[in-house]
Amino acid sequence: MTRKTLVLLYGGRSTEHDIARKSAAFVYRNLDRGAFDLHLVGIDKRGNWHPQSTTTWELEPESLPIVPAVQGKSLTAGAHLPTNPREALASLCGLTAAQLDHCVFFPMIHGNSGEDGTLQGFFELAGVAFVGPDTLGSAVGMDKVVAKRLAHSAGIPVVPYIEVTEESWQVEADATCKRALDLLGLPIFVKPSRLGSSVGVVKVKEAASLKGAIASALEYDDKVLVEQGLDVREVECAMLGPVTPKPSVIGEVVLEADFYSFEEKYAQASRASTKVPADLPDDLAAEIKTLSVRLFQTLGLYGMARVDWFLDRKSGQLYFNEVNTIPGFTERSHYPLFWRHTGKDSKQLLEDLIELALHRSRVKFALKREFT
After folding, report:
1. pTM (predicted TM-score)
2. Angle at CA 116, nearest 5°, toward 111 and 121?
């Protein structure tokens, strides 16, 4: 049997570049490296692809480095490449055509250009197996506004919100702020629609601060979610599987800060902690799992996702918050943590994700490409 090639792709051009490198290091440390012909390709902040040699690395790096390739082996996105997508992907990754024939890609790129469907579209054009949701699921999962619309259409409650686009903001900024305050009151959360890790998220407590918060968020994305601020508990469920996935135990983010900011997620001085399993009645935990599966199916996801929920402290109402289709894989990250508490260690989790990628590839390869 031909040995499989596994390409761990990491870094990327997004604001979450450094976190992606830490996530990739976690995957690297926990992979069964003896089971694959392992290749690592780092994408730097300018979009250049760098096939890596691990010979000079420490054995267990905390964050995978991106060492610029030498002798012309580094290729800039947009540079001259073969015209066939499959050949182009092989060239970018320093692979031969034979290696690509038995290859699975593990993208560990959070945010734009890695989690939003663009990279997945490249994989699909090239006809290769890859971990995580496909182009459609990645794109809709990344867009908080679109995901909330689809969740609402499936009968899943969402927190009241309005959408602000760059185009509308240029025409009616003051009117938009007034509408948001009239509809949502204070406090208000302002979030770039297509970023993760709470990048650019601001909690607005005073009306005078709203305009600046929206303008700031529009520096990160040309679509912004303006959402009613509620007093909530934040609970999460990790998903693993094909169209009908398995849910993990429910975990809860325990905060001392106002909200789960980038600093609270990743800084060493963070006061946030995670309680697994969350202290919830059995029927509520079961409801969260059921709704997480429904949300996963509604958004057309596959392989892995972490579904985040708000639980209103006063009313007990559950609301869909967001979904992460390439969730964090650092030592602090909830996705592998929740599965460990569900009985699946990180090595087995990665093996399951890779097998799901190969299964989908086999199914798609068997589809007819011509009408007869």
Report:
1. 0.90
2. 135
